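FW: tagging you since you asked about this chain on Friday. Here's the raw sequence from the shared folder, copied in full. Didn't touch anything.
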Amino acid sequence: MTQRVLVVDDDRTVSDVVCRYLEHAGYRVDHVGDGAAALAAVAAEPPDLVVLDLMLPVLDGLEVCRRLRSRPDGVPIVMLTARGDEADRILGLQLGADDYLGKPFSPRELVLRVRSVLRRSGGEPAGTVPQVLTDDGLEVLTGPRAARLHGHELALTLREFDLLAHLMRHPARAFRRAELLERVWGWSFGDESTVTVHVRRLREKVEADPADPRRIVTVWGVGYRYQPTDA
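HL: got it, structure written out here
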């Protein structure tokens, strides 16, 4: 079945180019120009992914992102930000966006980002053996992409899930932020604060005290590691 992408952007020139490239890549594409219309479109027919601009009329992109993340279906979000709006971009990631691009951007790169997020949302790649990763009440099932803590389902975004699974697959190993960008995001370069934001969000969900993390610990001068408590 053809995957459906909802493009939310009030700049007609940008949205026309984005829609054309996504359609050429084989996606079914719908477009709306404001935040309220975006929420209505998602409620009427949930898409497989939302391309969401931050600067929107009626409701801004941050509020749309916040409301979409309150939905149980966890629709993936690729966020578009004006270059230099670092605070808004970081806030968008904190609210649960799965990826982002700064304007101006390459439409081809956007298609690649959309494809990457959708591929991850579809579960394990072909030929990959599903795993069940466990540690002190934390259980991660890579096949169905589900995570539970002491029996309670965790609401993780795609990137949060991938980051947690990657760290748990390599317990006690320290990873630099650049390594995590490459291995989890698939980026050979990028803003390493993206990793920092996602680690912070993960800690809020898997740590008893996020201010004093015991599972995902900081290795000063390096990056992060998963410290198993069952070891």
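FW: The chain has a mean pLDDT of 88.
HL: agreed, and Residues 107-121 form the longest helix (15 residues).
FW: great, closing this out.
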